[in-house]
Design goal:
Two copies of one chain form a homodimer. Chain A is α/β, with parallel strands linked by helices. In chain A, 41% of the residues lie in helices and 23% in strands.
C-alpha cells in the first residue's frame, strides 16, 4: 500500500490538491518545473487570463478550509457589462440577487494556495522538470538546474501539470490511450486598463466587461489594485480583424479606435503592451483513461478547456473536491479503485463543460450584442424567478450550483429547444414589452409539449 | 533550395514515395528503425492484417512503373463470401463483372517496393531510430545500434513513419497542432487456415471470407501459398465474446466451435497460434497541419484509419500519387508551397475515408448478415447497372474509382438516404423477388424528391 503521493505541478489545481491530501494525513510532495514565483510576482504576467471564481470553486476552497483566506482578494462581478461600438454600455445580470462570479488574479490565488499547502506540511520541490515518466514502473525522472537528475520511485503520481502535461504525454505512448488536442482559430493577448490618475477604477468594477464584435471581442476583469486585466480574443488569421493583420503600432491603434474606442481611451500603455505581451493560443484537450498503474491525471492535464465559460479552474477545483470525497469513501487501501471511480464519475462532466466552453465563445462574442438574445435572457430570468427549481438557466446551473456539468448540459439543451420555439413567435418582443407573462408562459408550455 | 529528401519509415508508403521522388531526380534517402527484414520474412508475422489492393493503389503503383512487378503476387477477390453459424456460405459481389480487390501479403509487397526503391537509386538506412526531430531547424537525431548517434540537418523531411509517427510526435509539441488518437473498443489477432494436405486452398480463394457475428467477426484473405490469413476482431472487454474472456485453450476452442465452426475445422494450429500471436489494438488518428517548415507527414503518420474499408494502404499510395502530381505542377522550388497544397487538397479526403472506415465495421460485422441488407445491396447493384454513371454505390466509388473520397462520402450519404426510404416500403422484398424494377425505380424517384 503506497501512501506517498507525488503531485506534478504547483499550479492552482496541484496546490489545492496538496492541501486536501495532506489534510487526509498523506505524505504529499509537489514537484514544479518553475522556480518559486512567489518571490517574483511578475513572472507570469501577460500570460494568463484573469480567473473568475464561481460556486464550485468556492465550495472546494471552503472544504479545504481556505475560503476565508481568498475572499479578501476577490471582486464580485454581478453581471456582464456590454460595450457597443459607440461606447454605450448596459448590464446583463449573471444570476439573481447577489449571485456573482469573483475576479481574482491567478498569481495571487496561486500564491495563497502554495502558502497554505506549505503550512499544511506539503513538501515543495521547485525547478524540477519532468524528463520522463515510466508509467508501468511508477518512476519519474526529473532534471534539476545544473544538469542534475533525480529519480522518484514507488510513489502515487498525480499529474496536475496542465494542458501540456508531461505525465499525459507519457501515458499517450502507451497502447489504447485516447487523446485529442484541438487548437481553436482564435488566440488571445492580455492588456491593461490601469487605475485612473485619481487612483480609482476607470469603469464599473463589479462587472465583467465585454466588447462583443461578432468574430472577436475584448473583455476586462477588475483587480484589487483598481486596474482591469483585459483580454483581446482575435482569430490568428483568415479574418478582417486578426492577429496576423496587426503588424505595427498604427494597426493596433486603428483596431482599437475603430472597435474598442471607449476602452482605448483608458489604455495609455496599449501599443507598448501589445508589442510586449505574447499572443497565446487556446486549446481544448480530452483524453481517456486518466489513470494507469497508480498514476492519474487531474485538472487541465485531464481536460483543458477554452476559457469562454469561466470554468477551467472551477472545474479543476471540483475535481479535487470529488477526488477527496472518493478517498473519504474508499480509503487509501487501493488507489487503483479510487482513481477508477474518479475517472468514471468525472469524465462525462468534464466532457460536458469542455463542450459548453467551446460553444460559449459565440454567446460571449456575438449573441450578447443581439437584442433578441437579450429578450431571451430576460424571459429565461423571469422563468427562473417564477419557477426557481423547475427552470434554472444553464449558466446558473454551471456557475451558481454544483449540479453535475453533464446534467446542466442535458437540461440546458432541453431548455434551449423550448426557448428556440418561444423566440420564433413574431410577437415575442411585444409580449415581453407588455409584461404579458401569461402569453409567454403559454408559449413556453406549448413549446415543451411538442 | 533544398532538394535532399529524407523519408522516415521504409514501410509501404515510405518506399513507394522513395521511388516516386527518385524518379523525379531528387536525392532521396529512407531511414528505417527496423533492420532490413527482407532477409527474414517472418519478422512481422502475426502483426499485420493482409492487404487488399484496389483501384487507387494500383493506379499509384502503375504511375510508379511497378504494377507489373506486383501483379503476380496478388489474388483477386471478387466479393465477400459470408459464412453463417451453420457453415452455409453465399457470395456478395463487390462490384460488376471483373471488378475485384487483390489480396497480397504486406511483407511481400513491402519487399518488392524496397527492392524497386533501391534499384531506382534511393539510399536506404536501416536500424536508424528517430530519437528527436527539431522541426524548427529541420534536424533529426537518430540512435543507431551500439548507442551511436547520428544527426541529419538541412534536409526536406517526410514522415511516412506510421500511426505512431516520431515526426508527428515532435510536431505535436509545437503550438497549434491539432491531433487526435482514438482507439476503438475492438482488437485483432491474426490466425491461419493452411493449405490442405493436398496442397490446395481450403476454401474459395477468390473471395474475402467473413464470419459476421454482430459485435465481432472473423475474416480470411487468400495467400499465394494457398493458405489464408485470418483476422479475428473482438472487443477487448465488456462483451459476451471478448479477448479478456478467452483465458486458455479451452476458451479458444469453445468460441471457435460455437461461432466459427467451419473455419475451426480448417485450423489445426489454432490454439497454439492464438497463444503465440499478439492481440493488437486499432487506432484512428487525425491531425492538422501536416506540414511545418519543410517537414511533412504522409500516409498513416498523417491519418491512420481502422482497417474496415480496406483503404489504409490504398489511401497512402494515393497520397504519394497526389504529392507526385503537385511536385510535377509546382516544381521543387518551394517545398512549403507543395506541402501546403498537398495538405489543403488531401485533408478533406482523408477525413472522409477515416470516417467511412470507422462506420464500415458495422457493415462488415453485422449488416452483411441481414437479409434486408442483402436486398438493399442488390437493388443498389441493379441501379448501378441501369445508370452506370448516375448511381455508383459508395463501395464502388471508394474501391473501384478515384473519385475523391470526400465526394464518395457525400454522394454516398445522399444515396443512403434515398435507399433508407426505399427500404421502408413494406413490399420491397416482394417487389425485388418479382423483378418489378419499374415499381422499385418509382420508389427511388419519389424518395429522391422528398
Amino acid at each position: 500500500m503506497k501512501n506517498q503521493i507525488s503531485i506534478l505541478g504547483a499550479g492552482l489545481i496541484g496546490s489545492l490538491l496538496g492541501i486536501y491530501l495532506k489534510k487526509k494525513g498523506l505524505d504529499t510532495s509537489i514537484y514544479e518545473k518553475r522556480p518559486d514565483w512567489r518571490q517574483n510576482q511578475t513572472s507570469s504576467a501577460g500570460r494568463s487570463i484573469n480567473m473568475a471564481l464561481s460556486y464550485r470553486g468556492w465550495k472546494a476552497l471552503e472544504k479545504a478550509g481556505i475560503k476565508d483566506k481568498v475572499v479578501p482578494f476577490t471582486i464580485p462581478m454581478y453581471g456582464r457589462r456590454i460595450h457597443d461600438e459607440h461606447g454605450s454600455t448596459y448590464c446583463q445580470p449573471y444570476g439573481k440577487d447577489n449571485e456573482a462570479i469573483y475576479s481574482i488574479s491567478r498569481n495571487t490565488l496561486n500564491g495563497i494556495l502554495l502558502d497554505e499547502a506549505e503550512k499544511a506540511g506539503v513538501t515543495m520541490f521547485f525547478e524540477h522538470t519532468v524528463e520522463d515518466v515510466d508509467v508501468h514502473r511508477n518512476k519519474v525522472t526529473f532534471s534539476l538546474p545544473n544538469e542534475q537528475e533525480k529519480h522518484l520511485e514507488d510513489s502515487i503520481i498525480i499529474g496536475a501539470d496542465g494542458a501540456f502535461s508531461a505525465l499525459r504525454n507519457a501515458m499517450q505512448r502507451q497502447t489504447r490511450f485516447n487523446f485529442s488536442q484541438q487548437f481553436i482559430s482564435h488566440g488571445y493577448k492580455e492588456l491593461t486598463i490601469p487605475a485612473t490618475t485619481e487612483g480609482e477604477f476607470a469603469m464599473d468594477p463589479n462587472a465583467l466587461h465585454i466588447w462583443p464584435r461578432g468574430n472577436f471581442m475584448l473583455i476586462a476583469l477588475p483587480n484589487i489594485d483598481k486596474s482591469f486585466t483585459c483580454t483581446l480574443f482575435l482569430p490568428f488569421e483568415d479574418a478582417n480583424v486578426s492577429f496576423d493583420k496587426i503588424r505595427d503600432h498604427l494597426d493596433v491603434i486603428h483596431v482599437f479606435q475603430t472597435y474598442f474606442n471607449d476602452a482605448y481611451q483608458l489604455m495609455p500603455d496599449l501599443t507598448a503592451e501589445f508589442a510586449r505581451n505574447p499572443t497565446a493560443s487556446l486549446v481544448n484537450t480530452e483524453c481517456y483513461p486518466w489513470t494507469a498503474n497508480n498514476c492519474m491525471l487531474i485538472g487541465d492535464a485531464a481536460h483543458a478547456m477554452v476559457p469562454f465559460y469561466g470554468q477551467g479552474m472551477n472545474c479543476g477545483f471540483e475535481d479535487c473536491y470529488v477526488l477527496d470525497g472518493l478517498i473519504g469513501k474508499y480509503g487509501t487501501f487501493s488507489w487503483e479503485l479510487v482513481f477508477e471511480k474518479f475517472q468514471k464519475t468525472r469524465k462525462p462532466d468534464t466532457d460536458a463543460i469542455c463542450q459548453l466552453a467551446m460553444d460559449n465563445f459565440k454567446e460571449m462574442s456575438d449573441s450578447v450584442a443581439d437584442p433578441k438574445f437579450l429578450i431571451r435572457k430576460k424571459i429565461e430570468a423571469k422563468l427562473h424567478e417564477m419557477f426557481p427549481h423547475e427552470w434554472v438557466p444553464q449558466y446558473s446551473m454551471v456557475t451558481f450550483s454544483d449540479i453535475k456539468y453533464s446534467e446542466a448540459y442535458a437540461q440546458g439543451k432541453l431548455q434551449a429547444a423550448v426557448l428556440d420555439k418561444v423566440m420564433k413567435d413574431p410577437f415575442i418582443a411585444q409580449k415581453w414589452k407588455d409584461l404579458d407573462y401569461h402569453a409567454i408562459l403559454n408559449k413556453v408550455e406549448t413549446s415543451k409539449a411538442v
